[in-house]
Amino acid sequence: MIAVFGFALNGNVAPSMATTFDSNVPKNIQQQMTQDLLFMQSVQGASSSPLHQDIFGAMDGVSYKTFFESRVKAIGLNGCGNGNAVACVIPFFDPNKMWITKNYINFSHPEIARLMVVYHEARHTESQNGNWGHATCPTPFFDDNGKPMTSIWTGASLAGEPACDVTPLGSYGSSTILLKNISRYCDSCTEKVKMDAGIYADDQIKRVTDLSAKKQIQQDVF
Amino acid sequence: MMKKPSPSTLFGLLVLVVGGGFFLLKFNPKPDPGFSPQPSFEQITVSPRTSNPNSMASFSPEGTPVLSASDRARLEVLDQILISKNDNDPRLDSDFKNLSDPMKEALRKKYRSAPPEDRNGRGTYVFLLGREIQTMAELDFFREVLQETPCLSLADCSKAPPNDSHSDPALESANATTLAYPQKMARAMLDRKLHSDETSAELKKAIEPLTR
């Protein structure tokens, strides 16, 4: 299929998307992801925070489209090494390819949560920034209620695991900033999308463990 | 001159009066002002006695509130939206405000009948109901949501995911939030109601403990 904004000899090109899907990505996953990304292209807001402008630009669908398509050239199907993953990037294999799993449609995530994962992973494609590799979570590692932060998959403590960020600009920080801006400033979003964005942003910021970085995000948009 | 009725005639009249009264009581019940119906989903039907299909709730012969035709149509729209997984469908805002009591009951029933793994579906029902909280009685549903047994995994809420020592914990953060999404949405909507100037002091007092 020849699309207006993109053309590929192999794979499928979604309308208004330059990113291609490998042919083995099931059609229903392609459709869902395309729908989700087209939603991002429709997002409009009169305001955005300074960090949002640094990372994404204005709250504008064109900005989000450019951000994504400049980083992710292709989307393939992969288990991501774990039965519970939704998406991943494997930089040493292909720094500009995102891999998604069947959980993209099998798991009942809100739409903005799927997009949070996608934009989080898109940040990891930036080889020039060391792929924004995660920092080691602190030891001990507690949530706001004083409970140990543990893996929902293994039950093991996240303390000492490479699952945190110490910069506001990494994958957790940037997706937090993206979602919190949507929750506050999106004019084209439903109330549900905005509520969801706030809920997921409030959880994502917990993975930004450097106090200065967290404070920077909080002062920026919280 | 008026003729005095015979005993048999009097008896017949008595039967007529008693029978008529019984008939009226059976087919025109006075709604119990304290009635808090929990109709089965099958009882939520279009009222055949409603001339205006868009009218507010009317009651079935048994005294249970029934959905109007417009409410039934909106429920079908909601089903379509949830199947589409398009949370930005504008009808979520345009079509689901100022909900009738039968509509709220229908949404609560939708929540309870949805598979636990349908986290987004359940959270959507909570969102729609949370936007419409008007009475303290409605808080019972939110208590119910908040007190649910935690969902252990998105594939099967009743089972913890397989322990995978090779898992990348950085990939799981969205899953962790979604596991608790209906509860997080409940708290978020209650918190919004708590801080709204339009919420009465009495309702705020009842909501506050649920937000801790």
Order of secondary-structure elements of chain A: EEHHHEEEHHHHH
* Helical content class of chain A: 40-55%
Widest sheet of chain B: strand order?
Answer: 1-2
Q: Strand count, sense and closure of the main sheet of chain B?
A: 2 strands, antiparallel
Q: How many β-strands of chain A, per DSSP?
A: 5
Structural class of chain B: mainly alpha
Report the structural category of chain A: alpha/beta
Task: Set out the fold topology.
The complex is a heterodimer of chains A (222) and B (212).
Chain A lengths: L11 E2 L6 E2 L5 H16 L7 H6 L5 H11 L2 E4 L9 E3 L7 E4 L2 H4 L4 H13 L47 H15 L5 H14 L6 H11 L1
Parallel strand pairs in A: 2-3, 3-5
Antiparallel strand pairs in A: 1-2, 4-5
Chain B lengths: L6 H21 L30 E2 L5 E2 L2 H16 L6 H4 L6 H13 L5 H12 L8 H8 L26 H7 L1 H14 L6 H7 L5
Antiparallel strand pairs in B: 1-2
Helix pairs in contact in B: 4-5, 5-8, 8-9
Features:
heterodimer; A: 222 residues; alpha/beta; 5 strands; disordered N terminus; B: 212 residues; mainly alpha; two-stranded antiparallel sheet; 9 helices; 48% helix; elongated
Describe this structure in words.
The complex is a heterodimer of chains A (222) and B (212). With 222 residues, chain A is α/β, with parallel strands linked by helices. Helix content of chain A is 41%, strand content 7%. Chain A has helices at residues 27-42, 50-55, 61-71, 103-106, 111-123, 171-185, 191-204, 211-221, and strands at residues 12-13, 20-21, 74-77, 87-89, 97-100. In chain A, strands 1-2-3-5-4 form a five-stranded mixed beta sheet, with helices on one face. In chain A, strand 4 and strand 5 (97-100) form a beta hairpin. The longest helix of chain A has 16 residues, at 27-42. Chain A is globular and about 45 Å long. Chain B is mainly alpha-helical and 212 residues long. Chain B starts with 6 loop residues before the first helix and ends in a 5-residue tail after the last helix. Residues 19-55 of chain B have low confidence and may be disordered. At the A-B interface, helix 1, helix 4, helix 5 and helix 7 of A face helix 5, helix 7 and helix 8 of B.
